[in-house]
Amino acid sequence: MAHAGLLLLISLTISVGQAFSFYGGSMTFMPGNRYPGGKVEMHFYYRESGKLPCDPQVAWVCDSGDCGILTFSEPEVTEQDHSGQINWCQYERHMTTNVTGDEPFTLSDSGCCWANNVHDVREWTLHSLVDTRQRSDTQTANKSPVSATIPNIRVPQNCFQHLHLLAHDPDGDNVRCKCAFCHQHPNINLDEDSCTLSSNGTLDLGLHVFEFTMEDYPVSNITLTKENGISSVRNPYNQTANIDSTPLSQVPLQFGVEILTPVHSCVPGVNRPSLLTPTPLHGDVQHAAVGSVHIITLRAQSSGNSIFDFQVSGPWNMSKSLRNASQGVTEAMLTWTPQESDLHHHVPVCFTAETLQSQSEMRCIVIIVAKSRVLSGEAEVFCEENSISIAISKASMKGIDQNWLQLRDPTCSLTSNDTHILGMVSLDTCGTTVEDSGDFMVFRNEINSFENPNEVITRRNQVKIGFSCQYPKVASVSNHYINKKSDFIFTESRFGTFSYSFDIFTDNNFSSPVDPSLYPLEINLMDVLYMGIAAHSALPEVQLFVESCRATPDDNPYSALSYDIIKEGCILDGTVEVYHSDARTYDFGIQAFKFTGGYNEVYITCSVILCAEGSSNSRCAQGCLREPARKRRRDVSKETDRHHITQGPFRVARHTQHSAAESENGGSLHISAGTAVFSGLFIVSIVVLVGLWVYNSKKTRATDRMYLMSNF
Asked: How many whole angstroms separate alpha carbon 384 and alpha carbon 390?
């Protein structure tokens, strides 16, 4: 009986332990009212993730100092698994306390057990450091860093590169992420400044546990003052200097990353969903008002696997609705109405698009809740090739003193006329930031009101007008298979929007492009193709560099069957003739050819780079690099990324089979659209072709060109 009782006890213990598996948690806090006598009201917001049932596992207790009496709201489920596979959930809980002391205090809890994981981490411990003394810069108690994650992060093994974590601070402090046990992950690097995890090797399949502590440090020296007037100094974080770098607060951020089996392709939008505009960018800050509906639109695409949901970590009363659009695109609308208890709260919201096999990148934003909406005037935004202009109607901002408005970089000025406040910024000045939204590059700036730093009160309304322009990362006006005249458009932060054209010309004057109606071009072997690449940019001093040109028998530039015409800036084909052109164009001619083995089409893909003129360390300045040893460190700030542009297909003309009678009477060759040669005499054509063949045999024998082609 004793043995039976022991077995029953063990069985119950195991079943209870397996009923809930810890998946992580996060906390943020902020001060509320400060009452006479020094009592401070503190608000804590805690999220916890785990497997169902969604019951609270963490019971925060006072670990040290005067924590007051903690009161807890009922836990509210914020998100749960809709795939039917893992059965995870996340809940949120609000805690409050009134602190009578003005010394730092700590809250903590620990328990078991983490979900089964690669390094067999069992026990979890959560710890928060709170200081209610008054800051000299904000005249209130410190607010903690704000962060969160979705409950279930999943990444295919061959796709894990970076995981960007939210590190927002309401006081504008410097946030650092500390990880005491990250040495358990030898193939993971943590950038403490940006709170970014990076992979430097292959991670084992399964769940990897991360237990972070987020700390905040002032950006300049401040004082923390007790009610009795005694102060102490807090310094900015300095890893090297011999000064006290005590954090203002500490809060936990714990989560798991599940490494899945590898997938065929990590290209966003194929096996892994790609987030599309107007989905907010990671780190965005939005503003909401108490009692007013706030809407966030999410949009994602996956061509390989269908998106069945968006996983969201947000406030408990945020609702979600899904809509399937066309071409593998799914949209979600998040709707939230902040309550009075949310006032002044900086609320983190994280999300991913979900398929059964994987998920998109995780993005997190912050919503700041105010009593009423921040004033945002009526404005028109004009997106130019290398600049953004904004015109704000004065009539929509009555009572606003434009002299107290500034761009993100206050050294850049605003102007005005009788009806509008005007601003213009380039894509890389005046505090303009650039972010990758998935399908677009988004350039952002904002107009804000500012205050006199020596004033304690103000009688001016707060103004915040964000404006942005989005540019497609890559756009082509050409058909995929029949390129015709192609314009390839790109956008980069240092060079703005620029484009390349890749044309075929009728002769070596390079003034008359082949009529697009004649595409796809039919060519005769030995004909000379006159091709021209041109760069188009509003920047005055740039130069084009053609680093490589490769021919393939299909539209895949990485095809195993290929022929290098230009490589590392060096011309390899002996029939290529480069014609004099300006810094933005590259004109050349090449004798037409085809691939052996029954292929009748040729595509040519060139990699091109745009450089700032006069830069001695750019790729343009390096020129032809026949030997790797000649490569030297490049100044990438003076050049664009390498971009690929394609022209083709060119089709080898199929000659008509003529009868003997036709031959005797003088047949005719098929006139191809790709040549400008016209002949009515069959015999003359044969003589010309024989002469060309003899000439070319001598020339190409020296370069072994046809020999190379025949060996594919």
From this structure: 11
In angstroms, rounded to a whole number, what is the distance separating the alpha carbons of residues 509 and 113?
A: 76
**Contact assessment for residue 633 and residue 616, using Cβ atoms and an 8 Å cutoff:** no
- Residues 6+ positions from 205 with CB-CB distance below 8 Å: 118, 157, 259, 260, 261
Q: Are 196 and 212 in contact (CB under 8 A)?
A: no
Which residue pairs from 319-326 have beta carbons closer than 8 angstroms and sit at least 24 positions apart in sequence?
Answer: 325/299
Cis peptide before 649 (omega within 30 of 0): yes
Q: What is the DSSP letter of 359?
A: B
Tokens (6 digits) for 117: 């994981």
DSSP letter, residue 53: S
Structure tokens at 479: 């058909």
List the beta strands (DSSP E) in 65-160: 71-72, 76-80, 88-99, 105-112, 123-130, 134-135, 153-156
> Which residue ranges of the chain lie beneath pLDDT 70?
1-20, 84-86, 183, 241-244, 373-377, 398-401, 436-439, 450-462, 472-487, 489, 491-494, 496, 627-637, 654-712
Residue type, 277: T
Pairing verdict, β 440-449 and 577-579: unpaired
pLDDT at residue 476, rounded to an integer: 35
Q: Say how far apart CA 96 and CA 67 lie, in whole Å.
A: 10
- What SS3 state is found at 449? strand
Distance CA 195, CA 282 (A): 13
Give the pLDDT of residue 395.
80
Task: Count helices and strands (H / E) in the chain.
Answer: 5, 46
pLDDT at 438: 64
Q: Are 602 and 594 in contact (CB under 8 A)?
A: yes
Largest CA distance in the chain: 117
DSSP string, 265-319: ---BTTTB-EE-TTSPPTT-EEEEETTS-EEEEEEEE-SSS---EEEEE--TT-E
* pTM above threshold 0.85: no
- What pLDDT was estimated at residue 684? 34
Helix (H, G, I), strand (E, B) or coil at 228: coil
597 burial (CB, 10 Å; 0-12 / 13-18 / 19+) is: exposed
pLDDT of 670: 32
CA dihedral 478, 484, 485, 487 (to 10 degrees): 20
Of residues 338, 342, 346, 341, the one with CA closest to residue 367: 346
User: Residue with structure tokens 């953004």?
Assistant: 388
* pLDDT (0 to 100) of residue 632: 52
Question: Which SS3 state, helix, strand or coil, does residue 683 take?
Answer: helix
**Structure tokens that stand for 562 in this block:** 């290929």
Q: Are 43 and 96 in contact (CB under 8 A)?
A: yes
Residue 49 is predicted with a pLDDT of 93
Whole-number pLDDT of residue 550: 92
The pLDDT, as a whole number, for residue 175 is 96
Using left for φ > 0, alpha for ψ between -120 and 50, and beta otherwise, residue 67 falls in alpha
